[in-house]
Design a protein that fits this description.
- The protein is of the alpha/beta class.
- It has helices at 12-20, 44-56, 71-87, 97-106, 123-131, 145-153, 179-184, 236-241, 256-275, 284-289, and strands at residues 4-9, 25-29, 60-65, 91-94, 111-114, 136-138, 160-168, 202-204, 212-214, 229-231, 246-249, 298-299, 322-332, 335-340, 344-345, 349-353, 360-363, 367-369, 374-375, 377-378, 384-388, 398-402.
- An eight-stranded parallel barrel has the order 1-2-3-4-5-6-7-11, surrounded by five helices. An eight-stranded antiparallel beta sheet has the order 17-16-22-13-14-21-18-19, with no helix packed on it.
- Helix 1 (12-20) runs parallel beside helix 9 (256-275) and helix 2 (44-56) runs parallel beside helix 3.
- The relative contact order is 0.12.
Length: 403
């Protein structure tokens, strides 16, 4: 069976990482109408360049248009979608029914994907969107594998089913949250979420003002709304058997390192599954990769029923054990030529991470700066350096170090 790996990109560096590390398709946003305003996103010129590169590598590009636009924005949508189509976008991701109708009106040949924001949880809704012209539905995250299989069984085979398999979870149904809008006037449904679900909270009784009680018995209060991250890398076979055709990684606000590592891990896991679907067992090193990026504690969301352990009450911080030490620019004449990102020193053990392969471990034998001088540590941000190494690695491979 065909499984698409769909990776996020908030800027061009993340986009290249997604393509280089094995994504079949990349989803990204323009400068408007997308659900992430924090990342740089893509101008039309950048979008055209990204799409040309992706298509040269056999990778598709999907453009997010999944906000809920207001009256004064509707007239801006026609030039937006027409220019996107001219750039060669493979599909538009939409939520709003009005936006769906406008895509069909202005670019009738454009493939349409219905965003997770639409909250699709049953086959009747899925079929109705199909009848309205959708090629794909992105399911609500609040579904079990059994429910997904039920949707697959009662929808046309031509309708793609996409679901999130990895990344941050939202405390509100399908991301329809008003907390940010209410507290800090930043609308989550328009790409501006301030993530107040990650903040710490106390309880106050109305007749005892300024007497704050922790909801959880801890001096720091409680992160009662804070969700763990989703991770389904151990269950590729079950996702596929439920009928999911596109495995989506969350993270348009994440770093290029995050995109590289998580995309590579799921690429390897999917390929491993496709080699022997009836006897899937994930190699340990692939599973370990998803723990080498900055992440919250992991859970399996709603896939196996009610998520009894998917909230994390102690803090909203990330687990981060690895730093990017350098990015490899080229390998020649027995040297790695790289650009530094974080301090590392001679004698330290690093990992060299490249697409579609297990990382190599290496003790740094020596470091030379741009003037060919031997140095003990690479300690200047973005400095050019070289390291003796007999092996060769592709451009943009990553040297990382455990802290």
């Amino acid at each position: 069976m065909a499984i698409e790996l769909l990776s996020p990109a908030g800027d061009y560096e993340c986009f290249r990482a997604a393509v280089d590390y094995g994504a079949d398709a990349v989803y990204l946003g323009g400068k408007s109408f997308g659900m992430r305003s924090g990342p740089k996103n893509f101008s039309y010129e950048e979008l055209k360049s990204a799409i040309d590169f992706a298509h040269s590598r056999g990778v598709k590009v999907y453009l997010t248009s999944n906000t809920l636009p207001r009256n004064n924005e509707i007239e801006l949508f026609e030039p937006f979608v027409k220019e996107a189509a001219a750039c060669g976008v493979d599909a538009m991701i939409v939520t709003d029914i009005g936006v769906l109708s406008l895509v069909k009106k202005y670019v009738p040949d454009m493939e349409i994907h219905i965003s997770t924001q639409a909250g699709i949880v049953n086959y009747a809704t899925a079929n109705e969107f199909y009848n309205m012209g959708a090629k794909r539905i992105v399911l609500a995250r609040e579904l079990s594998l059994e429910e997904i299989a039920g949707i697959r069984a009662k929808t046309p085979a031509e309708l793609d089913i996409e679901a999130f398999v990895h990344g941050a979870m939202c405390v509100s149904f399908s991301g329809r949250c008003l907390l940010s809008n209410y507290i800090v006037n930043r609308d989550a449904n328009r790409g501006e979420c301030a993530q107040p679900c990650r903040w710490g909270y106390y309880l106050m009784e109305e007749k005892r003002p300024n007497e704050f009680y922790p909801i959880y018995e801890d001096e720091k209060g409680t992160y009662i709304l804070n969700a763990k991250d989703l991770c389904m890398i151990d269950f590729i076979d079950k996702l596929a058997l439920a009928g999911i055709t596109s495995f989506k990684i969350e993270g348009r606000a994440k770093s290029s390192y995050y995109v590289s590592v998580v995309t590579n891990a799921y690429r390897m896991a999917i390929d491993h599954y496709l080699k022997n679907p009836s006897n899937f067992k994930l190699p340990k090193w692939i599973r370990e990769e998803v723990f080498k990026v900055s992440h919250r504690s992991y859970c399996t969301g709603f896939y196996f029923g009610h998520p009894k352990d998917c909230q994390y009450y102690e803090n909203s911080g990330y687990i981060r054990e690895y730093d990017v030490a350098a990015i490899i620019k080229k390998c020649e004449n027995g040297f790695i030529y790289a650009q530094q990102r974080n301090k590392f020193s001679v004698g330290e053990t690093v990992e060299i991470f490249s697409p579609k392969r297990e990382p190599d471990e290496m003790v740094v034998p020596a470091i030379f700066n741009g003037q060919d001088e031997s140095i003990q540590s690479a300690c200047h941000p973005m400095m050019e350096l070289k390291i003796p190494c007999e092996k060769s690695y592709p451009e943009n491979s990553i040297i990382r170090i455990k802290r």
